[in-house]
Amino acid sequence: MVAFPATKRTFDVLVSAALLVLTAPLWAIIILAMTLEGELVASSRGKIFYRERRVSEGRIFMLNKFRVFKQESLARAQAESGEISTKELEKDGRNLTSTGRILRRVYLDELPQLWNVLVGEMTLVGPRPINLAVAERHRAEGKTSKFIFRAGLTGYFQSHKGLKFDLEQEQADLQYIDFCRRASAWKILLRDLQIIFISVYTVLRAEGI
Questions:
Q1: Cβ of 118: how many Cβ atoms within 10 Å?
Q2: For residues 68 and 45, what is the distance between their CA atoms, to the nearest angstrom?
Q3: Domain tally for the chain?
Q4: pLDDT value at position 164?
Q5: I need a surface site. Which of 50, 57, 91, 172 has the fewest CB within 10 A?
Q6: What are the distances in angstroms from CA 159 to CA 153, 187, 202?
Q7: How many angstroms separate the CA atoms of 68 and 98, rounded?
Q8: How much helix, strand and coil, in percent to the nearest 5, is found in the chain?
Q9: pLDDT tens-digit readout, 74-111
Q10: Of 113, 116, 136, residue with least CA distance to 66
């Protein structure tokens, strides 16, 4: 386990708290849109939030998202495999609600993870969290990045998705973790800001985080 930098944690708390306040009107619009769609389309009814077990620093936590899938699709996936793979569900657009399709396109379904950051389950920048099935595969393959550092809202690898980038995800994550282990607090903050800005650019171009 890599010691988590105190300055990075302070940055996480300040930024996530500020963003939760600033995006409150957006949350209200999203919740209203989901509620209205549920009233008009029976198959789109269900909970506002979707929570899934993920791994961060080798520990299991509940990751928060806006629900983008139809409730029946989630129930079917749960019944079939016991563990829901949202990546698999996303491959068939029929599993998504209309509002969910828009949220996925601009990555706003990830917005509730700001709460995960605020309470210390995630960080703004770090390896993206994985579900339990993928965690078992990573463990068997000797991949360690998801177990030794706090999971991030975005990461070094994800921020470059859609751009020319030669590193595999595990390599990119380990490079970032090693940087956090060696660099000064201010260098870590500057690197995090750089990754966040690139991530915003990637989102605006509608590329995958």
A1: 17
A2: 11
A3: 1
A4: 46
A5: 91
A6: 10, 18, 7
A7: 8
A8: 60, 10, 30
A9: 878 777 666 676 777 777 788 899 999 999 988 899 99
A10: 113
Taking CA atoms, 79 is separated from 60, 74, 85, 88, 174, in Å, by 21, 9, 12, 14, 35
pLDDT at 166 over 50: yes
**Distance from C-alpha of 203 to C-alpha of 113, rounded to nearest angstrom:** 16
Residue 50 CB-density burial (10 A; 0-12 exposed, 13-18 middle, 19+ buried): buried
Domain that holds residue 191: 6-203
Q: Does a structural domain hold residue 1? A: no
CA dist 95 and 179 (Å) reads 40
Under 8 Å CB-to-CB from 104, ≥6 apart: which residues? 68, 90, 96
Task: Look at residue 194 and tell me if it is in a domain.
Answer: yes
Which amino acid, one-letter code, is at 43? S
184 falls within a domain: yes
